[in-house]
Amino acid sequence: MDENINNIKATIGSSDLIINLSKSHPDRHIRFASLYIDNLISNQILSIYSAELGKILISVENMETKNSKEFFNLLINQFSSFRRVSQGSSLDKVMEGLLSGELVFLIDGYSIFLSIDAYSPEGRSIEQPTSQSIVRGPKEAFTEKSGINISLIRKRIRDKALKIESLTIGNRTKTKVALVYISDLAKQEIIDEIIRRLKAIRIDGILDSGYIEEQIKDNRYSIFPTILSSEKPDAVAGCLLEGKAAIVVDGSPFVLTAPALFVEFFQASEDYYHQFHISTFVRLFRYISFALSIFVPSIYIALASFHQEMIPTPLLISMMASHEGVPFPTTIEVFLMEAVFEILREAGIRMPRVIGPAISIVGALVLGQAAVEAGIISAMIVIIVSITAISSFAIPNYGMGNAARTLRFIMMLIASVFGIFGIYMATIFLLLELCRLKSIGVPYMSPFAPKAKTALKDTILRFPLWKNMARPEGISADPSPRANDMDIVTDKQKKQPEFR
């Protein structure tokens, strides 16, 4: 035991490594040690451990034979009644257990260690979502504790087919990652592919689920997100019920779901809590906002610089009048204002929460008004940039919003060189790129390309729930209508024995 402790000290060498040396009744001379990392384990479990250990030592005094193996078995029987207990004989496993928040027992004269799960770090309690605000629906959000996140999912899906597979990723951080799926709904080949990609990750540390997302993407250089992230348990539960898989990363309040389709990034969980008329109406405006945020500045540049004959005469006169006295060409004006707005947007995010929104809004208004009055930019440019900015905020997914921001500048650059023809060609290439993308092997533009009639009922339009009972084709292993799930009784279910 002393040699093992010295090896552990030499390997970890940290002041928060706590080692308690003890022994049973002086006549018995059974020496043992308990080791743990301070601030990683629960004080409540430490108190329970002390009380249970006192009972064990009293039992040892009444035993006829006192050897290390019997004492080890007594520890297992006592502690396994209230905590998860494991054992091993590798020094690396001891290190992994200590750094994972486990309480480790070493017994002198016995070459097997005992570890008790006592991990309980401090963290946030369950709060409202910060990036996915809703008016109607559950207000709970995931936290940085993977155990709580899994419990929030199980709270909504009380199904025996809900499976959880645990992995450890990160050579140094040893981050716990859980793959959650419903076994009879998810396609096994998709689950196997996700597990293969997760196991293939070679990196020092996983500090957030974004590390996982970037590592397992099909098209790593694409600006479009192909894996959906959410901090709402109800949204993740809905994806699981469609046959998808969820990836829960310890330390991250965002859970990944895959495969993810293009249309999903314009959907919100709140769509299913309102009447289908309202949800369809709102979805249409989200797609329109996405198009406006990408094309409005570039179309303005193309029309003002190359195709003035396409602009109605009254509007053209108004545009020329507002541009009177401005020293910059239209292209420079738009690029300048878009860049300034992006700087203000980032400043509003990074500044303290109390003053961030006020500074960004006041800065935009004051700066825009002062620039127009000084004759640096025209009033029409301020209107164009404002429309673009407001439209970008209507996109419910932040990752897709970032893709729209990038595409906006690319379209502006193309329009400044090639005009409307360049915008047409860039749009064609954009559609081809979207059709080329895949998410865990599933076409990104499904159910449009390839076309799946049953899945079209929940894309741009949201059909009523009673007419949209089928799961997505190509993703779920059981695309049969959900309404019939309770009516179908298989032969295997009939033959299951009753509990006795």
Instruction: Say how many strands there are.
Output: 12
How many discrete structural domains?
3
Percent strand: 5-15%
- How many angstroms does the end-to-end distance come to? 46 Å
What kind of sheet is the major sheet?
A: 5 strands, antiparallel
The shape is elongated
Topology:
Elements: H1 2-12, E1 17-23, E2 31-37, H2 43-62, H3 68-79, E3 85-88, H4 91-99, E4 102-107, E5 113-117, H5 146-156, E6 162-169, E7 175-182, H6 188-199, H7 209-216, E8 228-230, H8 233-241, E9 245-249, E10 255-258, H9 276-305, H10 313-322, H11 330-350, H12 356-373, H13 379-393, H14 398-436, E11 438-439, E12 442-443, H15 491-494
Antiparallel strand pairs: 1-2, 2-4, 3-5, 4-5, 6-7, 7-9, 8-10, 9-10, 11-12
Helix pairs in contact: 2-3, 5-8, 9-13, 9-14, 11-12, 11-13, 11-14
